[in-house]
Amino acid sequence: MISHSRRHCVVELQALPARIGQVRRIVSAQLRHWQLDPLIDRAALGVTELLSNVHRHAQPDKVCTVEIELRLGRLTVSVHDSDPRLPVRRETAGLETCGRGLALVEALSEAWGARPLENGPGKVVWFSLRAAPTAAAPLRTVHLGAKKPVREPARPVLAAVDAGPVVTGVPVSVSAGPRPG
């Protein structure tokens, strides 16, 4: 079930790998709708880590609720599940491939935490990001000959990647052609 209001969205699901990708797309679409495009990558990565933890650790089942809320300039993403055990952020060595989820959430967010559910067994794990609606592009200085500098919207810089671009883990083919002016 998906329900949402102007600044609140709730998704109930079973935390299975296929569902996690769907929730990433839902979160991304909701943030685009709220004009919070700069937060999409961090929010999608954070929710992926929290849902992966539910998939790996939650008992007795993998049923959970993802909630995103925009209030007072802050986006909060939370995952509620029925396992009462609170997560513990582990210190990990550089090459470990497991146990880094909460460290990643901590690194990408302004704040994060976990607390027991108030109404019954379970917990909520959450993180928050400072949010501001997408505004006009930032201005950059452009020198036009001997004239005074002119302020104009900044243009995104494109970088080449040897292995080709990757979007949400899916390789994308790119064809060479004239660059837009």
Describe the structure.
The protein has helices at 17-33, 40-57, 101-108, and strands at residues 2-5, 8-14, 63-71, 74-81, 111-116, 123-130, 139-142, 150-153, 166-167, 170-171. With 181 residues, it is of the alpha+beta class. A hairpin with a 6-residue loop joins strand 5 and strand 6 (123-130). Helix 1 runs antiparallel to helix 2 (40-57) and helix 2 runs antiparallel to helix 3 (101-108). The N and C termini lie far apart (45 Å). Residues 135-181 have low confidence and may be disordered.
Number of strands: 10
Proportion of beta-strand residues: 25-35%
Strand arrangement, largest sheet?
1-2-3-4-6-5
Order of helices and strands: EEHHEEHEEEEEE
Query: Helicity level, as a percent range?
Result: 10-25%
What would you say about this model in short?
By secondary structure, the chain is of the alpha+beta class. It has helices at 17-33, 40-57, 101-108; strands spanning 2-5, 8-14, 63-71, 74-81, 111-116, 123-130, 139-142, 150-153, 166-167, 170-171. The chain has three helices and ten strands; from the N terminus they run E-E-H-H-E-E-H-E-E-E-E-E-E.
Fill in the keyword field for this structure.
two-stranded antiparallel sheet, 181 residues, 3 helices
Q: What secondary-structure arrangement, pairings included, does this model have?
A:
Blueprint: E1 2-5, E2 8-14, H1 17-33, H2 40-57, E3 63-71, E4 74-81, H3 101-108, E5 111-116, E6 123-130, E7 139-142, E8 150-153, E9 166-167, E10 170-171
Antiparallel strand pairs: 1-2, 2-3, 3-4, 4-6, 5-6, 7-8, 9-10
Helix pairs in contact: 1-2, 2-3
